[in-house]
Amino acid sequence: MQRLDGALRAVGCHPLTLSHAVKLATLKIVKSLSGKGDINQSDLEDAAHLLCYCATGPDEYAETNGPWKCAAIGERLVAAFIGDKRSCDEDLVLLTFCAGVIHPDVVQLYGLKVI
C-alpha cells in the first residue's frame, strides 16, 4: 500500500483522494498482471497514472504531468475499451467509475455510462 501511495504522490494525486478499498482493489488488479504474486513497480506506477487521471480529471492531470503524458493516458483509456480481451486499464477505470471517484470530465469525455 505504501508503494502505491508513493506512486500516487509522484504523479500528483494525494493518496487520501482514493479510499483504502479502492487502493486495495487496485493492488489486487495490478498483482493479477504478474501472475506470480509480485507487484512490479512499473505496473504500479502505470496504475497510479491512470488512477490519478481518472480521479483528478484531464485538466489537473495535465497541469501536473504535462500534456504529452495526459494524451498518452487518454490513448490508454480508449484502448482499454476497444479490445476483446479484458485489460488491467479497463478494470482500473471501471473501479474508479463504480467507486464514484472518477472525475465528471472523464465520464463526459469518454462517454462512460452504466448499461
Structure characterization notes:
By secondary structure, the protein is an all-alpha fold. The protein has one domain. It is 72% helix and 0% strand. The protein has 7 helices and no strands. The protein has helices at residues 2-10, 20-34, 41-56, 58-65, 67-82, 88-99, 104-110. Helix 3 (41-56) packs across helix 4 (58-65). The protein starts with a helix and ends in a 5-residue tail after the last helix. The model has no long low-confidence stretch (mean pLDDT 92).
User: Could you give the distance between the termini?
Assistant: 32 Å
- In sequence order, what are the helices and strands, one letter per element? HHHHHHH
Approximate shape: globular
Tell me the helix content. over 70%
The value of Rg in angstroms is 13 Å
Break the fold down into its secondary structure elements and pairings:
Blueprint: H1 2-10, H2 20-34, H3 41-56, H4 58-65, H5 67-82, H6 88-99, H7 104-110
Notable features of this structure?
72% helix; mainly alpha; 115 residues; globular
Quickly describe the structure:
This protein is mainly alpha-helical and 115 residues long.
